What does this fold into?
Amino acid sequence: MKLQLIGTGSITAPQTSASSLIDDHILIDCGTGVIKELMKQKINIFDIDTILITHLHADHFFDLPYIILLRSFNQITNNLKIYGPKNLKKKVNALFEIGYADLDDVEKLFFAGNTSIVEFDNLEKEINGHLITSILVEHGETKPSYGYIIEKDGKKIGFSGDSCYCQAIDHLVDSCDVSVLECSFPYNSKEHMGPEIIEKLALKGKIIVTHMSLYTRKELKKRNIDNVIIGKDSDIFHI
It folds into this structure.
């Protein structure tokens, strides 16, 4: 699988909001700045047929209206399905109401661009040879929050989304060939992981770190941890 890091920053960092792309058509998270970053990285956004939203924080889904609008304006005929937690559709509609109140019928945008939102409690679905499985993670009071495992040709890539250290994170690292993990805080909290946790997890499996603050990026570089790659916007890996 081809793994491309679209953004690797937390909300406090200058890098684009954390987002990843698998094989040019499966996007994990679509937060603030992601659509423009996709364009900067010369990715055809209309090739994306699947978007996986991890949870309902702005830096993970606020750019969805833009891809919905662009697909509608260009009358894209291939289907785009956006998977995410309960209330995702309601939240996206609210963004349209706030940002584009002049639009008469938002549903027409979805129809014209062949775009749909699929809310789930548990996801296990095969899409174009990729088996996608959701996993519940712990992100403070933000519930539900999901990570994902994507499998193809016997290889697995895990995505933590936003999460503290919990049993689900152990499962990701234990079961995947590489895990894309967040590291937002200087220490482990009930919302996020810190560099010390990343160092411990790296004893068990290969890790690519994303969703970093300036501090955690600097601290991870300082620690120079074996089995850990500090992700940069536009990095590409082949798994």
